[in-house]
Design goal:
The complex is a heterodimer of chains A (254) and B (252). Chain A is of the alpha/beta class and 254 residues long. Chain A is built from seven helices and ten strands. Chain A has two domains: 157 residues, Rossmann fold, CATH 3.40.50.300; 68 residues, no CATH class. Chain A is globular and about 50 Å long. In chain B, helix 2 crosses helix 10 and helix 5 crosses helix 6. Classes of the chains: A alpha/beta (254), B mainly alpha (252).
Chain lengths: 254, 252
């Protein structure tokens, strides 16, 4: 598989009253085309900063990000960021939101067709004319995902996409995401603090250290989909990752 | 039914006030202060001879023109100042100095520049309503949440689409708040302006009624009509808040 995302030596610090605060410290990683990578780390470790650098929203102090071998410094529709709080435009209908990213030469009727197709894929058929405030949190997340998919991005950057949802809805969204990814291949970089979510979804799980963060360990997840979250392999991997994060204890029931 | 019940205390206090007014005037046997009934007959008199509609029309016309000019200037200017740091830094100090100057203080200069015709009050209305609307529009742009701008950047949309589908709709609720404030101020100002230089309008009606024979019944009639029209104008602006395109702002 060719390398899709090549991150080399990323560093980032922010100036504070107490001096320079290192946030990201020398992160390098490579993501293959079509691969699903999950990055887990303790909260406040600089996960989101790392993600925004990789997606091109903030420049690193040093290091570089290359997509398909070309260095990239700006965000673009080839890699869409989906974040925790979402960015579905509340003043546009579902359909208008889904059409927002379609800026190619398509005619309006083609754009409508694409929007309706993706609304259908994420289970929002019949809600095309609704406004976001009329939808539930889970449905909003679907709009966000569908809006991203509609521009056929090579990469999806997902920054704790489901953490604002309740546990049940989060699980359901994971299953739907896997279903969609089975149909349309995307390279995915997921940032999460939920170890189970990482194991459920990813081909590889990378564990970040506390701030200033770097990659502390990498775990391959060699289980075919659909994965059974109660299986011993998943539980073993979960314990190993939690141990790496420094939170697993001997009396852990699993 | 419940709406009627909700408005009962409001109506009751007005009725009570009118009763107290009536009682006070009759018991003190005031010769100059009118009873509520005299105000009603005075109003009927104004309606009969047609002057009431002329005065209302004149006042509303001035407000309409001055306010429309202010919207046409304040909205684009506010968007520009909100979006461009440099424009904000350049213009904001000047506007912050001009804004607290009462429109009444502008009257001498307005007369000097525009004479005693319609242009003076229109200018006063413009100057009084343009600043609150600029301030609201700028604040609207400054409070657009970053995640929306980031999404627009992510999808690589054109500048035109960024403005028409993100910035302007995001600011629109604030613009409407500004327009509500602006129109309220404009209505306050037109009456004051008409008291000084003009021969028509509700402000002129009040001053003229006093000067021409102490017709305080007409003075109070004018005041009540001003209040009622102001209420109507505010209701009109509140109606804008119900538009589909801004309803997101008021939903939970």
């Amino acid at each position: 598989m060719p390398i899709k995302i090549d991150v080399a030596g990323l560093r980032k610090g922010f100036a504070t009253d107490q001096g320079m605060l290192g946030v990201v410290d020398d992160v390098s990683l490579q993501v293959e085309d079509g691969e699903f990578i999950a990055i887990v780390g303790p909260s406040g470790c600089g996960k989101s900063t790392l993600m925004r650098m990789i997606a091109g929203f903030i420049p690193p102090d040093s290091g570089r990000v290359a997509i398909d071998g070309a260095v990239r410094t700006q965000p673009g529709p080839q890699g869409i960021l989906i974040s925790q709080h979402g960015s579905v435009f509340p003043w546009l209908t579902v359909q208008e939101n889904l059409m927002f990213g379609l800026n190619g030469g398509q005619s309006t009727s083609e754009k409508v067709a694409i929007a309706n197709h993706y609304a259908d894929i994420v289970g929002l058929k019949g809600f095309e004319g609704s406004y976001p405030h009329e939808l539930s949190g889970g449905m909003l997340k679907r709009v966000e995902i569908a809006r991203a998919l509609a521009v056929k991005p090579a990469i999806l950057y997902m920054d704790e996409p489901f953490s604002a949802l309740d546990a049940l809805m989060s699980l359901r969204m994971r299953n739907e995401l896997l279903k969609i990814l089975g149909r349309e291949r995307h390279t995915v970089l997921l940032i999460t603090h939920d170890v189970e979510e990482a194991i459920h979804l990813a081909d590889r799980v990378m564990v970040l250290s506390p701030r200033p963060t770097r990659i502390q360990a990498t775990f391959e997840v060699r289980m075919p989909h659909p994965r059974r979250l109660t299986s011993p392999e998943v539980q073993q991997l979960r314990v190993a990752i939690l141990k790496e994060l420094g939170v697993a204890s001997d009396d852990d029931p699993s | 039914m419940s709406r009627l019940r909700q408005s009962m205390p409001g109506i009751a206090i007005i009725v009570l006030l009118i009763a107290a007014w009536w009682l006070t005037v009759t018991t003190t046997r005031s010769v100059i202060f009118p009873t509520p009934w005299q105000v009603v007959t005075g109003t009927i008199e104004l309606i009969r001879d047609g002057t009431l509609w002329q005065h209302i029309g004149a006042s509303l016309g001035r407000v309409g023109v001055g306010f429309a000019l202010a919207v046409a200037v304040a909205v684009p200017l506010g968007l520009w100042m909100g979006w461009m740091r440099g424009a904000y830094d350049t213009l904001n100090p000047l506007f912050q100095i001009l804004r607290p100057i009462s429109p009444i203080a502008w009257i001498p200069i307005a007369i000097l520049w525009f004479g005693v015709g319609n242009a003076s009050p229109i200018y006063l209305i413009f100057i009084s309503s343009v600043f609150p609307m600029i301030v609201q529009t700028v604040a609207g742009v400054h409070t657009i949440e970053n995640r929306y701008l980031r999404a627009a950047e992510n999808f690589g949309v054109s500048r035109y689409k960024l403005f028409t589908q993100v910035v302007i709709p995001a600011v629109l609720p604030q613009i409407i708040v500004g327009m509500r404030i602006g129109l309220g101020v404009a209505w306050l100002v037109v009456v004051a302006a008409e008291m000084i230089a003009l021969r028509s309008g509700l402000g002129y009606l009040i001053i003229d009624s006093r000067n021409a024979g102490n017709r305080y019944d007409l003075v109070i009639a004018g005041m009540i009509i001003i209040g009622l029209i102001g209420l109507l104008l505010d209701g009109l602006m509140r109606g804008l808040e119900g538009l589909k395109i801004v309803r997101w702002r008021y939903a939970h």
